[in-house]
Specification:
CATH architecture: Orthogonal Bundle
Helix content: over 70%
Radius of gyration: 26 Å
Number of domains: 1
Distance between the termini: 34 Å
CATH class: Mainly Alpha
Largest sheet: 2 strands, antiparallel
Length: 589
């Protein structure tokens, strides 16, 4: 290596040549070794189960039956309503979340209380959906003496007792479920829109004003057209894909008598086949998988060009388009913060009452007490579940991070069609519903491991977490500036030394993957329901089991929900800025 002065500046010439390429990019043999763990996990626990499900949907006892299972599944009573309800979730809920997310991001951007508003809105995103279901079931309790929302409805309409419109009745249960989902997801939309707004270059607004444009023109030409319209597509797609996983919320929040009126494909597939492979269940699973994959492909067309948002040229303070929001928007932000606090207050207040008081009357009718917490913790079961879930989430997160780093590093240097195909395959693996692969996975675990053990449960979590982690980390590596990659190559003695140096440059993405994977495993219900056993039951499964006697055990259930929510809320709140920074490092390539 030599240094030559060019126009007064030292220039580094790499005179070692192509052999030094091996320092940054592993050889073919090393690349295969790096990709092998991820390939085995995805092939054995995602790809093969999907193919097995497709095979089961068109065969019966090894005989080809064509579309017979599909016809039987679609002809079953209520299936048409289930499919329609699933489509309604995928269209209406994302529209509401996207609209509210943008308005609240804009309303809280420059106001003094904006940080507090965003903090309040983010908290529900960290809660387990089991806890969200418990919280809103407490609010919508049909008895006005216990349910706050029912009491308010009774006061507003002048009805009493059974005459009050029941939000958990057959007619309104889907509306109640959607309201809970919107409450849980708006905070994510606010974070994404805030990141987009902060990256809007002020020169665009200046140019619009220079040509005589007013506030309306600035909004459209300097914000929506260059960036925010695409960000809307990203948020809408993310929430739409999220609605395909409403299983936890529906299972916990809906009483058994109205569950069929609230059912979507996520629940119907589980009701049809559970953790086994059946013909009709496989057919429904294939329909669901095709719908989700099609939605993912459409979303990828937008995400590819929409994300990440461009880096701001000017500091946020210098952006004239970022004036403080007008009074109506500030009032909207303040009102949303209050509304978002109400469910949290209901959950905490209910937990601060004894089991008898919580079951007999509303939390506002009795003095607070720690009796429910005492009953919960004295048995010792809670501590065992907390310890097991903490160990499971930590072990899975560490394993996913290692496997994903090893696989993402060689994949980051792919370009052109190979990179695009890899990204689409990873995104497809991310959105595969676990209910679709449950039966075949249990078959695999029955051979490799004993089903229902902690090792089997952890293995499924790792396989489901690796695609998302590889996708994020691959994009983070690929988005590193060329000079940093070159510096890592020149200082690294071998490719793994280069990998360590580049990983330090991707700390936001690594932190985002770690926090999201830990929270996902901690908050999980469906994987635990399908793959756990008596000695490997996570916390979410325990809370869901307590809902069988919901009214009688509401105080203890609320206390358990509060305890289960503390750790994920703390992690997400502390890392919320790093989460967004780590996730905006690229789209499908």
């Amino acid at each position: 290596m030599s240094r030559l002065p060019v126009l007064g500046e030292p220039v580094v010439l790499d005179d070692v040549g192509p052999p030094r390429r091996g320092r940054a990019y592993p050889a073919a043999g090393a690349t295969s070794a790096l990709l092998l763990p991820a390939a085995l996990l995805l092939g054995g626990l995602v790809l093969w189960p999907v193919l097995r499900t497709v095979h089961a949907s068109v065969t019966s006892d090894g005989r080809w039956v064509g579309a017979a299972h599909f016809r039987a599944a679609l002809a079953a009573p209520g299936t048409g309503a289930v499919v329609g309800r699933t489509l309604l979730w995928a269209l209406l809920v994302p529209a509401v979340v996207t609209g509210l997310g943008y308005l609240l991001a804009a309303a809280s951007r420059r106001s003094q209380e904006g940080g507090l508003v965003r903090l309040i809105l983010v908290v529900p995103t960290a809660l387990p959906l089991v806890v969200t279901g418990v919280t809103f079931r407490l609010m919508y309790d049909p008895d006005p003496s216990r349910g706050l929302a029912t009491l308010i409805a009774a006061r507003l309409t002048g009805h009493t007792g059974d005459a009050v419109p029941q939000l958990l009745g057959p007619g309104l249960v889907t509306v109640a479920l959607m309201s809970a989902f919107v409450w849980a997801w708006v905070g994510l939309a606010v974070l994404v829109f805030r990141a987009a707004l902060d990256r809007l270059p002020s020169s665009l607004a200046d140019a619009v004003r220079a040509y005589g444009g007013g506030r309306r023109h600035v909004l459209w030409d300097a914000q929506w057209r260059p960036l925010l319209l695409r960000t809307v597509a990203v948020v809408f797609a993310l929430v739409a894909l999220g609605t395909s996983r409403t299983f936890d919320l529906i299972l916990v929040m809906t009483p058994g008598s109205v569950r069929d009126e609230a059912s979507v494909l996520a629940l119907r597939v589980w009701q049809t086949s559970g953790g086994t492979t059946t013909g009709e269940g496989a057919a429904l699973g294939v329909i669901w998988l095709v719908a989700v994959a099609a939605g993912m492909l459409v979303a990828a067309l937008f995400v590819r060009q929409a994300w990440p948002p461009p880096r701001a040229v000017d500091p946020p303070e210098a952006d004239p388009a970022s004036a403080p929001p007008r009074r109506p928007l500030r009032l909207l932000a303040a009102g949303a913060a209050v509304a978002w606090l109400v469910p949290l207050a209901v959950l905490v207040a209910t937990s601060l009452h004894g089991p008898v008081e919580a079951a007999a009357r509303g939390w506002w009718s009795a003095p607070p007490s720690l009796a429910s917490y005492r009953e919960l913790v004295t048995g010792g079961e809670l501590w065992r579940l907390l310890a097991f879930t903490l160990l499971l989430a930590t072990g899975v997160t560490a394993t996913v991070l290692v496997v994903a780093l090893l696989a993402a590093y060689p994949l980051a240097w792919l370009t052109g069609p190979a990179a695009q195909v890899t990204g689409l395959l990873l995104m497809t693996a991310v959105v595969v519903p676990v209910q679709v692969i449950a039966g075949p996975v249990n078959e695999v675990l029955g051979v490799v491991l004993s089903s229902g053990t902690a090792r089997g449960l952890a293995l499924v979590h790792v396989a489901l977490g690796v695609p998302f982690a590889v996708l994020v980390l691959r994009n983070a590596f690929a988005d590193l500036p060329a000079d940093r990659v070159r510096a890592a190559r020149l200082t690294g003695r071998n490719w793994w030394g280069t990998l360590r140096r580049l990983a330090r440059q991707c700390r936001p993405a690594i932190l985002a993957v770690s926090v999201l994977e830990f929270v996902q495993v901690w908050n999980d219900l469906v994987v635990g329901l399908l793959f756990s056993g008596p000695d490997a039951a996570p916390l979410g499964l325990f809370l869901a089991g307590q809902t069988r006697g919901f009214v009688a055990g509401s105080g203890v259930l609320a206390a358990g929900s509060v305890i289960a929510s503390v750790l994920p809320v703390v992690l997400v709140v502390l890392a919320r800025r790093q989460l967004v920074a780590g996730l905006v490092s690229g789209g499908v390539r």
